């Protein structure tokens, strides 16, 4: 596993984001994923490798085929990382609203 | 329940969008951003300077009980249209974060409700992500007490 890669780098690429969206509803083989893109198949394979390395995707052997599916936990981690920042502004804006309501009633 | 404050940070873009609806008239919302004594109350830091006009500037500061400066931020106000928008820069001093550009839009919804849209543009995608990651990093580095303190202090002041 390549530790230089992090999930944020992984989702910075539009093709990789599209792969994640594609896999959100069902798991697919590399061939089926590649058939959804104009990009050359080795390029898609490279993207799949990166997404797998940073654990956004998991591989699952089903018979002779390898299926890729979303790692929900890792995806949740990305969603959660924004939450503290959002919360910070939410708290601040709640305060703004309170301050201004007091200001208004004093007038 | 729908969240009042929404944050949009698309992958690969060097910007974020924060939106929020208020139970306040657009006039009051705009005042909250432009009257120094009101800004101080909700931002939690002292306003050293605030010139709400084209090519004006502003400066925020936080000191501890002994008068030592803990945090200082400043920016240039590019344009202000009353009850409509503010365009300004924002930079935290001595933090290593580059200056960012802020477009703050105020819109009336009804006569006593309004909407705020803040678009922040960063120098690079990496700078944006580092800023967003600060409190996240804080969560996974809880063991490191001192670092945690520094980060949370820094973060409170954003």
Automatic annotation (TrEMBL), chain A:
Residues 1-90 form the HTH arsR-type domain. InterPro entries: ArsR-like_HTH, HTH_ArsR_DNA-bd_dom, HTH_MetalResp_TranReg, WH-like_DNA-bd_sf, WH_DNA-bd_sf. GO terms for molecular function: DNA binding; DNA-binding transcription factor activity. SMART domains: HTH_ARSR. Keywords: DNA-binding, Transcription, Transcription regulation. Transmembrane segments: none annotated. PANTHER family: TRANSCRIPTIONAL REGULATOR, ARSR FAMILY (PTHR33154), TRANSCRIPTIONAL REPRESSOR SDPR (PTHR33154:SF33). NCBIfam families: HTH_metalloreg. This is ArsR family transcriptional regulator. The lineage of its organism: Bacteria, Pseudomonadati, Bacteroidota, Cytophagia, Cytophagales.
From TrEMBL, chain B:
InterPro entries: ASHA1/2-like_C (IPR013538), START-like_dom_sf (IPR023393). Coiled coil: none annotated. Pfam families: AHSA1. Residues 24-150 form the Activator of Hsp90 ATPase homologue 1/2-like C-terminal domain. Belongs to the AHA1 family. This is ATPase. It comes from Arundinibacter roseus.
């Amino acid at each position: 596993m390549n530790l230089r890669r992090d999930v944020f780098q992984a989702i910075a690429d539009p093709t990789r984001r599209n792969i994640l969206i594609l896999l959100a509803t069902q798991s697919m083989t590399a061939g089926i994923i590649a058939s959804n893109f104009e990009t050359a198949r080795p390029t898609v394979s490279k993207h799949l490798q990166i997404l797998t390395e940073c654990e956004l995707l998991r591989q699952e052997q089903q018979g002779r085929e390898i299926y890729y599916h979303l790692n929900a936990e890792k995806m949740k981690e990305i969603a959660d990382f924004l939450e503290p920042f959002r919360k910070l502004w939410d708290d601040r804006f709640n305060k703004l609203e309170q301050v201004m309501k007091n200001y208004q009633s004093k007038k | 329940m729908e969240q009042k404050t929404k944050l949009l940070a698309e992958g690969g873009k060097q910007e974020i969008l924060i939106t929020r609806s208020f139970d306040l008239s657009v006039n009051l919302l705009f005042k909250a951003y432009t009257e120094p004594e009101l800004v101080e109350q909700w931002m939690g830091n002292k306003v050293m300077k605030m010139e709400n006009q084209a090519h004006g500037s502003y400066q925020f500061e936080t000191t501890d009980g002994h008068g030592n400066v803990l945090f200082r931020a400043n920016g240039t106000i590019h344009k202000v249209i009353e009850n409509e928008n503010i365009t300004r820069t924002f930079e935290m001093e001595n933090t290593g974060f580059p200056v960012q550009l802020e477009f703050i839009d105020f819109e009336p919804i009804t006569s006593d409700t309004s909407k705020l849209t803040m678009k922040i543009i960063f120098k690079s995608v990496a700078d944006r992500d580092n800023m967003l990651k600060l409190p996240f990093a804080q969560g996974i580095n809880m063991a490191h007490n001192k670092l945690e303190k520094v980060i949370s202090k820094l973060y409170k002041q954003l």
